[in-house]
Every structure is written in structure tokens, then in C-alpha cells.
Amino acid sequence: MTYTGCESFQPVFDWNVKQLFLYLSAEYSTKSNSLNQVVLWDKIVLRGENTKLNLRDMKSKYFFFDDGNGLRANKNITLTLSWNVVPNAGILPLVAGSGQVSLPFPDAYETTKSY
Hints:
The protein has strands spanning about 5-10, 15-30, 35-45, 50-55, 75-85, 95, 100-105. By secondary structure, it is an all-beta fold. Strands 2, 3, 5, 6 and 7 form a 5-stranded antiparallel β-sheet that branches. It has a two-stranded antiparallel ribbon with strand order 1-4. The protein starts with 5 loop residues before the first strand and ends in a 12-residue tail after the last strand. Belongs to the SPCS3 family.
């Protein structure tokens, strides 16, 4: 799937798909760890619901927990949209999108407190 800012998952739904569990993850490396992965956002899409997602102004659902300061000014953060198919019957396959987006993280950023 190529990122266009607005994606539809309607082609994924066939006779055996009850729902999709979508999740956006970030992958990056630090001096301490060669591989760090964190889920930023997730959503369940049920059969019959609107399957078109507007990803442009989406807010992170979960906090980034950084191991040290590896995110700040990191020039290679890779975002991947993946999904699990929840079938009516059978196995639960894991499917990744057919593209990734790499982007630099800012040198400074603000955090907001949520209570």
C-alpha cells in the first residue's frame, strides 16, 4: 500500500474477514539498541464500517518511550502500517503494508501532559 494520506481497506475484506486490527509502528536505532519498535496508534475496523482512513493529521495514541535520547534528532525513523485480519474462521494472519515511510525526528519537541 502506498501512502497517499487517505487509505481504504475495503479490498482486504472478503467473505472470511470479520474485522481488522490496524496499527502504526515506528522503528529506529539508538546507541544502546540496534532495534527499537514502538506502536504509535491502533484502530479496529469492523466489517461494514467506513474503511477509508485519513492519516494526515492523526495524533499519536500512545507515548513514545525513548531509551535514552535516541528519538531526538534521529534522522531515520521508519513508520510502518500493519494489520491483523480477524477472520470468521481459521488462523490470524499478520499482514504489513507494502511500503514504509522514513522521516527525520526534530532536534527539539514539546511533550504534553495527559491526566
